[in-house]
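Running this now, will post back.
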Amino acid sequence: MSPKYDVFLSFRGIDTRANFVSFLYKELERRGIQTFKDDKELQDGQRISPELQRAIEESRFAVVVVSVHYAASSWCLDELVKIMDFVKNGSITVMPIFYGVDPFHVRRQIGDVAEQFKKHEAREKDPEKVLSWRQALKDLANISGQCSSKWSNDSKLVDATVDTISEKLMIFTRLSNGGKIVGIERHMKKLNRLMDLNFKKPVRVIGIWASGGRNGRSTLAKHVYQTWCKDFETHCYLGNVKRIFKGRHLAHLHDEFLEKIEGAYLTSRGSLKRQKVLLVADDVYKVEQLDALAEDFTDFGPGSVVVITTQDKQLLISYGIKDVYEVEDLRCEKLCDLRTFAFKKRRDIFAAFESALYEAKDFVTECFGCPSGTSGVYEKLLK
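Update: finished.
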């Protein structure tokens, strides 16, 4: 089954919905990373809906934000059990973020976490369910993740988290779903020459014309965006413009762009006129769509680049786009099942080693404290 979402966000709403999670979600969406964020806060005792379970199953990554009251919520813990079940069968990768909590406390279930589980044990009639919650939380805390105490502010933590996800998605673009673009390195080498990142003149528009199915074209578009976005002050990926536009007024395309690229991000960094911007618009099929986007990209700063992908070569010609990369036959090839199997096995072995290392670290810490220099050794081993 092909994943519907890149990221599933698991979090406790009362702790992080209005601050950290909202910033993280906005940045993920702005970078073109399809993210599921449940906007409903279930009450304790309510079951996770089949739709929510399906969203977990249909995601590549689960980002679990463990905050102060996360373990106090039976709903969050039920959700975590589902996530860790999918982690065990290899269908999803989990990335923990310990926000305002000590991962050691979460792993050993001491301090506030211990008090929260005492309340669960007093309320919950099924002791096996509480044990499953404890095990899921312990398994999660045994995975190396981000810790908010190591960052000076939330903005840096958000950037680091999204950068990591973006880099991993570049690998998935090539390796997951059983295929990759044939000759991707050759395509990128030619596009790099056309791109010319040192070019400082006003905004340039580059077209990518590719025949064949949309999947290969979209895969190339996302790969181009993820490869180049770090070279720009501001960047935005508009995936599947045809879907955004279909059945709606042209203004909706303009609004979609503004929603992804404006707001707090630009408020803190100035107007687009002074920004070096990368905009990748995938699957454009009408000149009117280019006109709608041009309302924005004509104001981009020097060195900005707009990349348009389309199946209609005449569209690029009629709009006067001269820098065009033509891909006559954009195909995906199947990867060997053995390679996929070996990749999963290596990941499972590393996870087991990581868990054992954390257990050893916790034992040493409890018995002797943290001897000088040992913390750095553990961190190096886990990298």
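The CA atoms of residues 128 and 134 lie 10 Å apart. More later if anyone needs it.
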